[in-house]
Amino acid sequence: MRHRAGPGGDAQVSGWLAELGIAGITDLHVHFMPDRVQQKVWGFFDGVAASGAPAWPIHYRLPLQQRIEALAGLGVRNFSSLNYAHRPGMAQWLNDFSTALAQDHAQVIHSATFFPEPQAPAVVQRALDAGARIFKIHVQVGGFCVLDPRLEEAWRLVEQAGAPVVIHCGHGPHPGTFTGIAPIRRLIERHPGLVLIIAHAGLPDYLPFAELAHKHRNVYLDTTMVGTSYMQQLFPVPPDYARILHGLAGKVVLGSDFPSIPYPYSHQLQVLNDWGLGAEWLAGALWHTPRGLVGLPA
């Protein structure tokens, strides 16, 4: 297999995509939040160095429209707008923002979220009726268990709709009371048809989550920050991880965490390229698999 040079910078991404033979990128792990929420998120990352972690400079700290244009310039044809609720009464407000964004910008994949509260099923049903194609749940930030009884009907609705859920459930970057693989195993036992995309490939538990994706047809991994220069300082991938991901062709999708990443977008793509998984694998992760998950034409 000829080793293909990766994109050395954002300006080289379009040429690299052309070499792969795909029309662009479909990124299922992108965040577009209401401005006051986005500013708080950026403020959190601005302060991580004070806790002893490596500094986290926001590479795409731009107004909303400029962020949309930046993605277009990178060849990202479709992208999610993942919001996530961290307290009761917040999910519907976030979903309204995501719905409006998707209505105003055809390239935005209509995204939604929900939270363990009595109205969770109604929030999910309203999102689905409005056209939501993908959901986001953040177990660590939300501080809740996926097995919370108040979520049972919401999970059933999402499962029935076939909408994938990008779920941040791993112990990284900080473990939470309810993070880890055990609750996820129980969740898919209850809802085997539920489509889960494990954010950040479940880091730092890369191998158990990879095994979960291998065993369960509806469990996928996203690549968000995995193997990047920043994350290698904290949670390096196992030496044989590229081989494992090669065996999971069709079960891995690109995720970037744009805009709140501490490096250029092209860096994540360069990492994937340098793993030597081949053009077919890359085309699947960047284009074919994510589009299939959210019902976009190939």
UniProtKB/TrEMBL annotation:
<dbReference type="InterPro" id="IPR032465">
    <property type="entry name" value="ACMSD"/>
</dbReference>
<dbReference type="InterPro" id="IPR032466">
    <property type="entry name" value="Metal_Hydrolase"/>
</dbReference>
<keyword id="KW-0378">Hydrolase</keyword>
<dbReference type="InterPro" id="IPR006680">
    <property type="entry name" value="Amidohydro-rel"/>
</dbReference>
<protein>
    <submittedName>
        <fullName>Amidohydrolase</fullName>
    </submittedName>
</protein>
<dbReference type="GO" id="GO:0016787">
    <property type="term" value="F:hydrolase activity"/>
</dbReference>
<feature type="domain" description="Amidohydrolase-related">
    <location>
        <begin position="27"/>
        <end position="296"/>
    </location>
</feature>
<dbReference type="GO" id="GO:0016831">
    <property type="term" value="F:carboxy-lyase activity"/>
</dbReference>
<dbReference type="Pfam" id="PF04909">
    <property type="entry name" value="Amidohydro_2"/>
</dbReference>
<dbReference type="GO" id="GO:0005737">
    <property type="term" value="C:cytoplasm"/>
</dbReference>
<keyword id="KW-0456">Lyase</keyword>
<dbReference type="GO" id="GO:0019748">
    <property type="term" value="P:secondary metabolic process"/>
</dbReference>
